Each structure stands twice: as structure tokens, then as C-alpha cells.
Amino acid sequence: xxxxxxxxxxxxxxPHETPSxxxxxxxxxxxxxxIDADGRIEPRDWMPEAYRRTLLRQISQHAHSEIIGMQPEGxxxxxxxxxxxxxxxxxxxxxxGGHGLYLYSAAETLGTSREQMxxxxxxxxxxxxxxxxxxxxxxxxxxxxxxxxxxxxxxxxVPICRCSYGPYARxxxxxCKEESFHQRQGFESLMTLxxxxxxxxxxxxxxxxxxxxxxxxxxxxxxxxxxNSAQGMRWGIKRLSNDALRQKFVDxxxxxxxxxxxxxxxPELRWNEARQAHDFGPIDWDDxxxxxxxxxxxxRERLATRVQAHEDGAWVREAALAHAARRRQHEQESxxxxx
Length: 339
Ligand SMILES: [Fe+2]
Ligand SMILES: [Fe+2]
Known about the structure:
Layout: H1 21-36, H2 49-68, H3 70-74, H4 83-108, H5 114-122, H6 139-157, H7 166-194, H8 198-217, H9 229-234, H10 242-260, E1 270-272, E2 277-279, H11 285-295, H12 299-312, H13 314-338
Antiparallel strand pairs: 1-2
Helix pairs in contact: 2-4, 4-7, 6-7, 6-8, 6-10
The protein binds fe (ii) ion (2 copies).
One fe (ii) ion binds next to α6 and α7.
């Protein structure tokens, strides 16, 4: 439910009054000044409608990605090769569920309900990160997701800790700490496999060959094709461009691949002395858009599993509501007795 009241500072006009042109100008001015000074916007502060909508879309898509992202790896919990690996994987998948919860809470402060956000996800109106529409075919995929997918997520998310919207920035600080554990466990799991047998090394290389290009695409379309990025940067929601983040990720990952003894599947990947950065080959954007638009290998399966999980959990929501109602009733009765 939209509650305009959240956008109105105390002591100003009520949500039912139409603010005058001057008061809107003054609020816009105060908002711009706060953004320019790198200050934080909080839920009760006035904000332009487009800023609110942009944040709501970004934070809810981020929340959806966290909970859909539980599926590809959750698929391996019952098949983890040891008790230790199972415990680590369970903890990681639970962390992702927690990330979804912090982010839905942050998005709710913008005046929309969790039910509305989940409905948008379940009916296919909302997007989530396209990387989770690829399958996890071998145990090495779990390590590669930790190393590359969580590694890319950290690159993307560390700058959001300085996002201009306070609740989102604060949620990201804790999330990034946990993502860092996810990346480390992936790297360590791959290191163990790379020290194992030829078959284990081949399994890792095959997984990296499948994941490398979709991971590079995770950073989003090239800057030239991202018309909304400039406004996001102006508002302090986005701090680094898609291409800048992708470059940082490639530069950080190449030396890690060398330590692991893995070959990244790009014949054009090489150090460019003049740029002090790695050059890399072209990304297949047609494949990216096809997956974003619902035609990836697992889109239908991911959504169907999510809807099923939601339906299976209906009794928990009903029980929690009934419990809350009974508690309220008891409180009212004991207040009457006391009076
Ligand atoms: Fe996460
Ligand atoms: Fe993660």
C-alpha cells in the first residue's frame, strides 16, 4: 500500500492537501542540497517521485535476486560431498534468504508492501538477476558461484554502502560482510578441488567456462546503452558505472584465476600496459537479453519453484496472523481488567 504520509516531513501539509508550487520547489531544493552534500535521505524525508520509484525498483529487484539466488545452490545442499561443505553451503543459502529479508524491509520504507513486491515477482512483472537462470550442473558450480557470482555481487554492492538512501545503504553494509564470506568459501572450495584429481580440475574448468561470460554480463549493459545510469549517479544511488565495475571485477579476478590454476575462457583477455587494466573480448548481449526476457535455461523452473514455496508457506503466514490477533485480544482483555 502506498502511504504518501511517509514522504511528508512532520509539521508540513497533510497528505490530503495539494502542496503549492513554491513548497514543492523548496522541498526539491532541500533534497538536491542534501544529495550534493553527500547526505542521506531517510524514509520520512520528502523525495521526488522518480527517485522513490527508481529506488523501489532497484531494491525490490535486489531482494528478489537474493531469494531466487537461493535455488541454484540449494539444489546441492543434499548432495554436498562432506558434512563440512554441507554446513558451509547451508549457512550461505540461509544468508541469501536473510539478505532478501533486509532488502524487502528497506524497500517497504518506500511505501509499498511485501505482498505487492512478491506478487510482482510471482506474476513475472518484476525482474531479478539473470545469472540465477543458469543451471548448477556439477558440484564445482557451487564453488564457482561463490568465487565469481558472489565476487561480482561484492564489486557491485560495496559502492551501494554509500547509496544516498539511508535504509538501503545500511542494509548493504551487513550484506557485503556476508558476501565476502561467500566469495572466500567459493575460492577455498575450488582450491581444494584444484589440488585434487585431474577429473576434479576438469570439472572446475568446465564450470568456469560456463559461468564466466554470464558473470561479466551481470554488471549490466555497456554504459553507452544504459540511459538511466547517469540519473542514478546524479542521485547517489549508483556510484560507479556498469563498465567501470566490470573492469574492476576482471582486474581483480585474473590474478585469482592464476593462483587457482584456472584458464578464463577468453582468448582476447590480456593486460594492457597503457590502460593499466585488462582488455577482454566482446560479451554476447543477445544471450543476456534473451535470458532477461524469460528465455534462459531455468527461468520457468525458478519462478515455478518460488511460487510453489510461497503457496506451501501459506499456513505459516495464516498461523502467524492468527497468533498476533489472539495476542492483541488478550492484551485488550487484560487492559480492560486492569481499568
Ligand atoms: Fe546475498
Ligand atoms: Fe552471496
